[in-house]
Amino acid sequence: MFTFHTATLDDADQIADIIIATSEGIVEHxxxxxxxxxxxxxxxxxxxxxxxxxxNTDNVIRCVHGNAIVGLLFSYPSSDHAVPxxxxxxxxxxxxxxxxxxxxxxxPDSLYINSLWIAESYRGQKYGSAxxxxxxSRCKSLGLQRVSLFCWNDxxxxxxxxxxxxxxxxxxxxxxxxxxxxxxxxxxxxxCPLQGG
Length: 197
Description:
This protein is of the alpha+beta class. It contains seven helices and seven strands. It has helices at 12-23, 26-31, 40-50, 85-90, 93-104, 127-141, 156-164, and strands spanning 2-6, 60-65, 68-77, 110-118, 146-152, 168-173, 187-193. The radius of gyration is 16 Å and the shape is globular.
């Protein structure tokens, strides 16, 4: 049996670890070696503690089984999907330009899923489906029309999962638009209307 819990500030380090893993290179591209002595995890964790833009624990749902966090959903209204002001002022323009499309583009009037994560040993056991249902429920409660997200095109397992849930291509982001190492196929903004999921 699992339960859902809104994250707290005490979860900031674990949230940062999970978002770094799900971003598949974006967080490292943006934050690694940005501030001497601070890792990408430390900077991202601090953003959640400071509640920087959508980087707020109120936007994070933890899926807990026993005492373990087995899944995580980080989502917020698409109107909040933008580069936080702190990032705008701290990041070198060239570094930010390579990730800006992922940080700003999404389907309008949607709940944007920044990160959907299931622990490796719990995949294929319906936890992802449960978190996706939670996302659609949140979308409806916020009065939004759809759910949207970004996925790397080379992440075949995730692309199959989203297709099964009714997601379709909203916008293709070619690799020259988001030149993050290891993703030669680029990525896609996917969207699913509220009646899907």
